[in-house]
Specification:
The protein is of the alpha+beta class. It is built from 8 helices and 13 strands.
């Protein structure tokens, strides 16, 4: 709450409008340049020796993802240790994750407030249709990634909801495998922590697997795997593939779920998957 308040104060002080002028916010915090570079890390905050900083962001990330990284590095200037090089969470070395995960999570929270300010987004989210198409349009209008906008929606909406990040990969025998990557929830309706089910393989018969084969889906399905207090839930899903740190395509589906007491569980309507980009 404190880091959100600090970034909200920055936005008000600079009279930032929506979408956020990240270059203005960065300049006010002593960042003299934002560079796009080839690197393994999503972003870095680099001191220049004259009391100023340079933000570097990864070239092969899409522009909306880079915007979140820029906001993340700006948020680091409000946290301890920002006078040394900072790496955005997601970078890894042969020793594993490098950096203070708690500070990285705080910087992510600050980035969400800066890029998707609650003073502008709260009224939009409260009246928004519970639909991934609507969320995607908000993300585009704010120059933010769909993933970041979904999690911000979860934070600001008064409705019980969960976001499910599914991944599709191919096992050595050539068959597809669907796994749960992360689950975000804003209420006890879905008590699962973000990484609690990470890597859990879903049997091919599970209705969530059919969603990954769809460009978009909207239905009522059994979500008891998430230990939800209601067995069935209404879901709205969209395919959101991306390129990972190694330059490989990752097939991902993002699912927005809300409680729904329904007796029947319906089949998923299929669409053509877009290419990874």
């Amino acid at each position: 709450m404190l880091i959100e308040s600090l970034l909200e104060d920055l936005g008000r002080k600079l009279e930032l409008k929506s979408p956020t002028d990240l270059h203005l916010a960065a300049s006010f915090q002593g960042v003299k340049e934002i560079q796009v570079a080839e690197m393994d890390w999503a972003g870095m905050l680099v001191p220049t020796g004259d009391g100023k900083f340079v933000i570097r962001v990864r070239k092969h990330d899409n522009p909306h993802r880079r915007n979140f990284t820029i906001a993340h590095e700006i948020a680091h200037t409000f946290l301890p240790g920002y006078a040394v090089i900072q790496h955005r969470c997601g970078g890894r070395s042969s020793l594993g994750f490098l950096g203070n995960r708690h500070l990285e999570n705080l910087a992510d929270a600050g980035a969400a407030e800066l890029l998707l300010p609650r003073r502008f987004l709260s009224p939009i989210f409260e009246s928004l249709a519970f639909d991934m198409g609507a969320i995607k349009r908000v993300a585009a209008s704010q120059h933010a990634s769909l993933d970041a906008t979904l999690r911000r929606f979860l934070r600001l909406t008064s409705r019980d909801a969960a976001v499910i990040d599914l991944r599709r990969s191919t096992v050595p025998d050539g068959s597809p495998r669907t796994t749960v990557h992360r689950v975000f929830s804003n209420s006890e309706w879905c008590p699962i922590a973000p990484l609690q089910l990470t890597g859990q393989w879903l049997p091919s018969s599970h209705p969530l697997c059919a969603i990954v084969d769809s460009a978009e889906a909207s239905d009522v399905i059994d979500l008891s795997i998430l230990r939800t207090t209601s067995r069935t839930a209404h879901i709205s899903a969209i395919s959101d593939p991306y390129i990972d740190n190694e330059g490989s395509p990752v097939m991902r589906s993002l699912i927005l779920a809300t409680p729904r007491r329904a007796k029947s569980v319906h089949a998923i309507s299929h669409g053509r998957l877009p290419e990874a980009s």
